[in-house]
Amino acid sequence: MKLSFKNKVAFITGASRGIGQACAIALAEAGAHCVLSARTQGGLIQTDNMIRQKGGKATLFPFDLQPKNPFDTTIDNIGPSIAQQFHRLDIFIHAAFYYTPLTPVDQITDQDWSKNISINLTSCMKLVRTLSPLLCATPNSQALFLQGITKPGAFWGSVTSVQAAIQNLINCWKEEIKDISTVHVQTITPPPTKTLLRQSFFPAEDKDKLNSPEKTAKIILAFLLKKQNP
Ligand SMILES: NC(=O)c1ccc[n+]([C@@H]2O[C@H](COP(=O)([O-])OP(=O)(O)OC[C@H]3O[C@@H](n4cnc5c(N)ncnc54)[C@H](OP(=O)(O)O)[C@@H]3O)[C@@H](O)[C@H]2O)c1
């Protein structure tokens, strides 16, 4: 299938490595202008270089999903900044995820718990809040959230709790905007993919059996395209 996202504007979190980076490169190659975000400037520059090599265009938007202080409004400014520069947002892919150690529930530390909630859950709410007006104003826009394991199991309390909460939040937002916009709100669980996150959760598994991020990105883009032209 020939993938075309010509003249689309896409905002991708987690674009410094892994699946987010591969999605950004594939989207840019298919014609989208990609706004790239993550903390690591070096990773974003690498993504930008790979996009340029393929003839694509990107804008870098480095930031930490963990607020620096209670008055940090960096995330709140993202929607207005994209609106000011591009006047539209066709695709939002939320691929950023902060790794919290797999631990028995009775040993989760306050620090790990609060970082998990702040970076993974609160920031997701803030991203939806800041991007929703622009996504709703852009015809047939798409918001895609990459989700992992939500089924509870030993040692997965921290990770699965936050992912289940994210899923609820997204479902509620989807209901709220379904009659007043044409935004396609979706979640997708990517197949096992060779990334730093995967390596942290499953250090002993056979990496040769995992998808490359590029292969997973192709699946994700095909999914987006199917929703664009059902
Ligand atoms: N890999 C798999 O097999 C798999 C399977 C199912 C679901 N998923 C889901 O797919 C998504 C992407 O995972 P991945 O495997 O590609 O992980 P990854 O390679 O570890 O990438 C995670 C991304 O999140 C960003 N990030 C982490 N903390 C951040 C923070 N505080 N502020 C801003 N950005 C931050 C990282 O960038 P910086 O460190 O530069 O900030 C990085 O770009 C996740 O939601 C994951 O749950 C992955």
Automatic annotation (TrEMBL):
<keyword id="KW-0560">Oxidoreductase</keyword>
<protein>
    <submittedName>
        <fullName>Oxidoreductase</fullName>
    </submittedName>
</protein>
<dbReference type="InterPro" id="IPR036291">
    <property type="entry name" value="NAD(P)-bd_dom_sf"/>
</dbReference>
<dbReference type="InterPro" id="IPR002347">
    <property type="entry name" value="SDR_fam"/>
</dbReference>
<comment type="similarity">
    <text>Belongs to the short-chain dehydrogenases/reductases (SDR) family.</text>
</comment>
<dbReference type="GO" id="GO:0019290">
    <property type="term" value="P:siderophore biosynthetic process"/>
</dbReference>
<dbReference type="InterPro" id="IPR003560">
    <property type="entry name" value="DHB_DH"/>
</dbReference>
<dbReference type="GO" id="GO:0008667">
    <property type="term" value="F:2,3-dihydro-2,3-dihydroxybenzoate dehydrogenase activity"/>
</dbReference>
<dbReference type="Pfam" id="PF00106">
    <property type="entry name" value="adh_short"/>
</dbReference>
<dbReference type="GO" id="GO:0016020">
    <property type="term" value="C:membrane"/>
</dbReference>
